[in-house]
Write a structure and sequence with these properties.
alpha/beta; Rossmann fold; 5-stranded parallel β-sheet; 4-stranded mixed β-sheet; 9 strands; 44% helix
Amino acid sequence: MQKRGFLLILSGPSGAGKNTVLDATREMCPELRYSVSATTRPPRPTEQDGVDYHFLTEEEFKRRTEAGEFLEWAEFCDHLYGTPLGFIDDCLEQGHVIVMDIDIAGARQVQKTMPEAIFVFLLPPSMSELENRLRARSTETDEAIKHRLNRALEELKAGINYDYVIENDIVQESANKLRSIIIAERCRVRRSEYFEQLKDIVGKRGGR
C-alpha cells in the first residue's frame, strides 16, 4: 500500500535565505516536490510565473480564497500570499515529500489544519547580516526594509514552536542539515515501507 507523503514547512524572516537553502537542498534531493506559492505582488526581474510564484491579480486571489483553494494564505507588505491546496493533496497521496517556504502566519494556519507536517525554522546569523541581505536585493525602499526588520524581530519569537531550527550562515551547510531532517523524517517507523511488516511481526509474536 502506498504510504502517504509528508509536508515540510520552512519558515524564517524575510532575507534569512529560505529560497537559496531550498534550491541547494533540491539539487541534492531532486525527487522532492516543491510547492509554488501564489502571490499578488509583482514579479521581480528574474522571477518567472509558475516557477518562482503563481502571480495573480488581487481579484483572482480573493476568488480562489473564497473557493477554499488555498491550504493557507496571508497578507505581507500589502500583498497576498497563498499555498494552492490541490497540488499538496495530490503529492501527499502519491507518497511524495513536499517542501515549501511560507511566513510565520501561514505556518500557523498549516499547524492548525495539518499538524502532522514538519516545521523547520531558518535563522539568519545576525540582524545586521539580515539587513545586509535585504539591502543587497536592491528591490525595496528603506521604509520597506525597516518594516521587514521590525517584523523579523517578532517572527524570531515563533521559532520556539517549530520542530527544528537551522542557522543559515553557510548555505551548503544549511542545505545539508535540511536534507538530514528530510531523511530522518522519511525513516520514521510509521512512514517506513516496513511498517506493515513490523506490525505483522508484532502481531504474530503477540499471538503465541
